[in-house]
Task: inverse folding
């Protein structure tokens, strides 16, 4: 069965992800005036809790880019995954007060001229 993997730093939790779930991915770029550390702190400590309050979110995962001297910088700063039971649940959630607050908050830390989002069809191979 597919799983959502949540990394808590010291431990990893595997959450079963039913086949029928919808996955929404956001590729985030920080505002030019923010350091990567400021961006990460804001996303984790301020925006993350807002996103977790959006009704119907089954799973919420933040993937932060890290410096790796053996690879070039990816250009983006974080990829966020939000999991929903279906598209209707997602669309209702975005229209909720919590969804509108979290969406409006993106302007506080994300470069919206570059940030992109999409529903994706995840194909797990292993």
Result:
């Amino acid at each position: 069965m597919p799983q959502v993997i949540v990394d808590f730093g010291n431990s990893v939790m595997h959450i079963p992800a039913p086949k029928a779930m919808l996955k929404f991915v956001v590729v985030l770029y920080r505002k030019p005036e923010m350091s990567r550390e400021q961006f990460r702190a804001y996303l984790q400590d301020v925006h993350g809790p807002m996103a977790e309050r959006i009704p119907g979110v089954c799973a919420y995962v933040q993937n932060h880019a890290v410096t790796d001297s053996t690879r070039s910088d990816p250009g983006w700063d974080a990829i966020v995954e939000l999991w929903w039971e279906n598209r209707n649940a997602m669309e209702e959630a975005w229209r909720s007060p919590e969804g509108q607050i979290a969406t409006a908050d993106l302007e506080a830390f994300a470069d919206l001229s570059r940030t992109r989002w999409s529903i994706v069809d995840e194909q797990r191979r292993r």
